[in-house]
Amino acid sequence: MHLPPFLTRLSDQPSQGLYVNCEFKHEDPLGKAHCLWWSADLPTAIVLFIPGNPGLVDFYVPFLSHLHRTRKDLAILAHAHINHTPGFRSPRAKQILAVQAKAATEVLDALRKTYPALPVIIISHSVGAYITLQVLKARESEVRLALLICPTISNIAHTPNGKRLSWLFRPPLPLLITALSPIIRLLPGAFISTLFSEWPPAQMAVLSTFLNSPYSIFAALSMAHDEMKNIQALDTELLRRHQHDIRIFFTSVDHWVGEQEDVIRQFFEEFEPGSVKITRGIDGIPHAFCINHGEEVATQCAQWIATHDFSLH
């Protein structure tokens, strides 16, 4: 399977038939990041996927694999967050959103340099949508379409989960939780499986690996604290500039978005009705759609890509 020159295949990680486990070497101090790559023989576009928190791209394999099966003309690069993947540690990189935005921008630059004639589409989930907006701000003309899934781009601390959980992310609790995390290894596997009884085995394996990596836990909790501080009012000027290039997917019940869905909808409807295509998923799809509902969301993304007029740029 062909790899672009800026990716290195991971020989110690299993690569499935559809995709390759690889790494992207960032500029210092960001270090290396875990990536997954789905190639295309004759690609018509490149998809850059930015995950939520924790930023483990392995959670999204069913979602992205279904998208690739649906649209074999897409090459897809899923880029994990710095320090979130067990085994990928960059001690000098801060656990903040700005670092993740810089990393995603570096990946976008590499894609544009390698595939200058192909449009780049960013698909992102949760806080990945906020990171996507920072990438759009840094590279205004380089992204042709942005698909934001369950986007946490407005006042996340005011959402139901933000109000309920933000205290867990404030120092020194992330450090304390990280120090206590080895206790998880003492818990019977059957007990963990009972807590997540609806999760498929492959997703449970990703979670188990994450819970056994104290540094990854600390990175995720610390970044969550930065989210509570910095994801505030909508960046209305940026959204206006990119209104025709944005699609948004909400779920019927999302405690990480809450009433902010109404804020986002109202902004776009007041500014220019219909300028942004907003879809609400069927009942039963949760914020963490990637666990059991990746195919449904991938189908919607494929439809948006198929109907977008890339010639407008």
UniProtKB/TrEMBL annotation:
Keywords: Hydrolase, Lipid droplet. The keyword Hydrolase applies. Its main location: other. This is Lipid droplet-associated hydrolase. Gene3D superfamilies: alpha/beta hydrolase. GO terms for molecular function: lipase activity. One of its GO terms (biological process) is lipid storage. One of its GO terms (cellular component) is lipid droplet.
